[in-house]
Structures are given as structure tokens and as C-alpha cells.
Amino acid sequence: MSAVDYASLIPNNVDLASDRALQRALEAWHPKFLDWWRGMGPDGFQDVEVFLRTAVSVDREGWAKFGFVKMPQYRWGILLAPAVPDRKIGFGAHKGEPVWQDIPGEYRALLRRLMVIQGDTEPASVEQQRHLGKTAPSLYDLRNLFQVNVEEGRHLWAMVYLLQRYFGRDGREEAEMLLNRRSGNVDTPRILGAFNERTPDWLSFFMFTSFTDRDGKMQLEALAQSGFDPLSRTCRFMLTEEGHHMFVGKSGVERILRATCAAMNANGIKDPRDVAAVRRHGVIDLPTIQKKINFHYSVTLDLFGSEISTNAANAFNAGIKGRFHEDQIEDDHQLQGSTYRVLQPVDGRFDWIDAPALSAINARLRDDYIDDCEPVLRAWNRVMADAGIDFELRLPHRAFHRKVGDFANYSVTPTGDIVDASRWQSSATEWLPAESDLEYVSSLMQPCHTVGAFASWIAPPISGVGGKPGDFEYVRLAS
Ligand SMILES: [Fe+2]
Ligand SMILES: [Fe+2]
User: Fold this and answer.
1) So what's the pLDDT on residue 181?
2) Predicted local confidence at residue 479, as pLDDT
3) Which ligand has the shortest distance to the CA of 152?
4) Ligand sitting nearest the alpha carbon of 249
């Protein structure tokens, strides 16, 4: 099963050749995908060779083969992780029953909705990032951007395969709509809020891949537990790619911090809050980085949905969407009658209350996400500690700047104090990027496309990609 058929137009390990109708449907969608890619994918660079990894098999050795390819010729494949023999549904009302190879009629609408929401995020992020190539701080970073982009494209293929294979005409219509919605468009926006925000600069890109791709990881982890086996296997393979996206973000911010700290030390700047002094040296000041964390983290927390949610309870009970590492949790995996601690606003302050565990599935996934972010912050803070600079980056309080869920109606500071709306508004630019912060960051975004060179505001990586050094010609712009 791990052999990938590369001879056909659409590389796959799902034996597409044996299902002519499906193959025709996907082949009909292919040129529309390419039109979308050329129109809404990376702006420019479509005809240059990029050093990209492609999955040639789904086992440990074969899934990341590096080579030069022009992006429109990238082999977007349909790849599922190997089936687990005799796999059983691990949670909910059907716990212990064999996993489904087909969609149970009663859960058709639920599964369709979940796949469409997941699928919609994939092209959305490509659209959000489409202008970044023009201001890449190095060829190494340009390659990483395009790697993320082509793989988000492949994730779209993954969801379109499931929709077309299991939902017939409905699935084909959804597949069309996935190419028709547009990030940030007022008439046809993408489904989720964070995917309609702009990604105007590389600091935003690294924050997005650190925080929002990490939400992607949590959603995929929850769907990888699914009793609908093809979805589980699809998500398990997507997770192997997601790791690199988060690496790009985490290491990108780390390199920005290294450049900032080095410039501060070289110029004897002791006070990290002396923004003007720091900016004089063409690097990004630490308070602006904190504000960007506050923004991207809070909009990403919204993606997990309401703390208390009947939809999430239904999806869990149905065996469709589990908890993070469901198969490693020690409890009855059915949660009837059990409780989970959820932070709630009570009488003008926050309090932990015991909620029915089934209704608190979203809150729990968000907690796991928050835990997953902590080591990222620790790694970033080590840069300042090593440089002897007294500044600590922090995750804001989970209730800060929320638009979805129980905190949406409260004005909350990054440290978790509820304040009145006017006080919040008057301090907003201390907590979130001000126009002038964004303008400064944007002023730094000049392309640095010379082989081996890096923009002033970002340090070179510690090592390169695909066995190559950091100063390798990752994108052949002259070709
Ligand atoms: Fe993705
Ligand atoms: Fe991703």
C-alpha cells in the first residue's frame, strides 16, 4: 500500500486507476486547481526552479525526496498513511466497533462539514501568503515559503479526494467551492476568521506558521483519531508535512530574535523597550514581536470554536473527531457523566468550573494547543537569555482579544484582567501592533535574493534544508 503510483497524472497510493469515475472527476478538477494556483498561488516565481521535497512514498524513508521543480509542475499527490490492521473505533458511542471504510449515512452531513472546513484552510493560507515571495529575506526562506505553499496545496488535494470519493455530486460541488472562495474577500470569504486576515510581511508569516499551522496540527491530530478510517489515514500523513511548517515558523522567529539581540549588543542598547534605538539598526524590536504574538495567538485560539459546544460533543460521540492523543488518554473514552475543567467568565471575573466533558471537547483541544505552544516560547526566550538581554516573551491570557466563544464579550488585557471597553481601546496599541509598528516592519521587507545573503533583520539558519547548506541556491531565479 505504501507504493505510490507516479505513472498516472495524479500520483496516489489509493489505487485510483481502479475507480474510473473518481479518476475522471479528479482529472476534471486538476486544471481548475492549476488555474487557481496560477491565479491565487505565489505571485511570480511560477517558472523558476525551486528545491522542493515531494513525497514519493509514505514510509519513513521515501516521503521527502528533494529536487528542483517548477511549482506548477509539482506532483500534488493523494497519499494516505498505511492502514492499521483491525483498527477499532477508539471513542464515543461506537467505541470498540471496527472502523468505517465508508461513510455511515447518519454522519454524512457532519463529516462533510468537517472536511470542508479543514479543506478551506489549505488554499486560504496559500492565498494569504501569495505576495511574500517578492520580499523574501533569502533564497532559503523563499524555498521554505514555497514548500509550505505546495504542501498546503497538497492538503487541499487530500480533502478534495475524500469529498469526491465519498460524497459523489455533493463532494464535487464542494471541491469547486474550495477553489472559488477567496481569503479576505467580502463576498466570498474563506470560512474561518484567521484565514481571512492578511499575511502582509515575513514576521506575520513566521507567526502564522508558528501559531496557526499549530492549530492545523491539533485539528489534524483530532481527526486522525477518527472512526472514518480514510479520514484518519489522510490526516496522519498530512501531519508529517505539518511538522515542517511549524519548524519554519518557530525557527524563523528565533532567527529574527537572534538578529535583534545581536544588533542590540553590538550597539550597546541595554533597554529593549527603547524601540527607536533598536529600529535604527534595521532589526525588529522585541515589543513589536510581543504584539505580533498577542495578535496571532489570540486569533488562532478563536479557531478552536466555543468552549462549550454541542457540535463538538456530537462529533466526539459519533466517533468522528477525537481528542488530542485520544489513544494515549486513560479514561473510558466515552465521557458520559465525566467533567472537564473550563475557564469561564463568572460575575465579572474568570473561574474554573467543571463542565460536562463531552461539551468541553473544544476547550480541551485548546488547552492541549496552549501546552504545545509553551516550548516554542521557551525556545524563543532562550535567545534573549543567551544574549544577556532582559526581556521575556509571553503568551497572552487565553481570554485576551477573543472574538469567538465565552470571552468574546469581554475586554481583557494580556494579563487576564477584565477592563471596560474604553480602557481596552485606549491601550490596544500597547498590546497589538499599531499602524506604525506594521509600517516599520513593512519598511524592512526588501527582497534579499542574492545567493547566500540574508536581510539585516534575520539571522542565517543554523543548517540548511535537504542536506544542503544555508547559502545554497535554493531557488534558481536566473533560470
Ligand atoms: Fe495544511
Ligand atoms: Fe500547514
Assistant:
1) 97
2) 56
3) 1
4) 2
What is the DSSP secondary-structure string of 289-301?
Answer: HHHHHHHHHHHHH
Distance CA 41, CA 34 (A): 9
Q: How far apart are CA 251 and CA 213, in angstroms?
A: 14
CA of 83 to the centre of ligand 2 (A): 23
Sign of CA pseudo-dihedral 158, 163, 166, 168: negative
Task: Give the other-Cβ count within 10 Å of 301's Cβ.
Answer: 26
Residue 129 CA to ligand 2 centre (angstroms) = 12
**Ligand 2 centroid distance, CA of 128 (Å):** 13
- Kindly identify the ligand whose nearest atom is closest to the C-alpha of 212: 2
Task: Match 511574500 to its residue by C-alpha cell.
Answer: 132
Whole-number Å distance, alpha carbon 421 to ligand 2 midpoint, is: 35
pLDDT tens digits, 196-249: 988 999 999 999 999 999 999 999 999 999 999 999 999 999 998 999 999 999
Beta-ladder partners of 339? 356
Pairing status of strand 418-419 against strand 411-412: antiparallel
Neighbours of 402 (CB within 10 A): 18
Q: The pTM is what?
A: 0.96
Cα of 216 to ligand 1 centre, how many Å?
Answer: 6
The answer to whether 407 touches 345, Cβ cutoff 8 Å, is: yes
Give CA–CA dist 142/448, Å, rounded: 10
| AA identity, residue 409 | N
Residue 451, pLDDT > 50, answer yes
β partners of residue 342: 353
- Which ligand sits nearest to residue 118's alpha carbon? 1
Looking at residue 275, its amino acid is: V
Distance 238 CA to ligand 2 centre (A): 9
Distance from the alpha carbon of residue 253 to the mean position of ligand 2, in angstroms: 16
And the C-alpha cell for 407? 470571552
Ligand 2 center to 36 CA (angstroms):
18
Amino acid present at 137: P
- Residues, beta carbon < 5 Å, ion ligand 1: 122, 152, 155
Task: Please tell me the distance from the alpha carbon of residue 258 to that of residue 383, in angstroms, as a whole number.
Answer: 6
Name the pairing type of β-strands 475-476 and 418-419: unpaired
159 CA distance to ligand 2 middle (Å) = 14
Q: DSSP class of residue 82? A: P
CA of 151 to the centre of ligand 1 (A): 7
Rounded CA separation 23/14 (Å): 11
Cell numbers at 75, concatenated:
506532483
Give the C-alpha separation, 442 to 466, whole Å. 30
How many Å apart are CA 84 and CA 450, to the nearest integer? 47
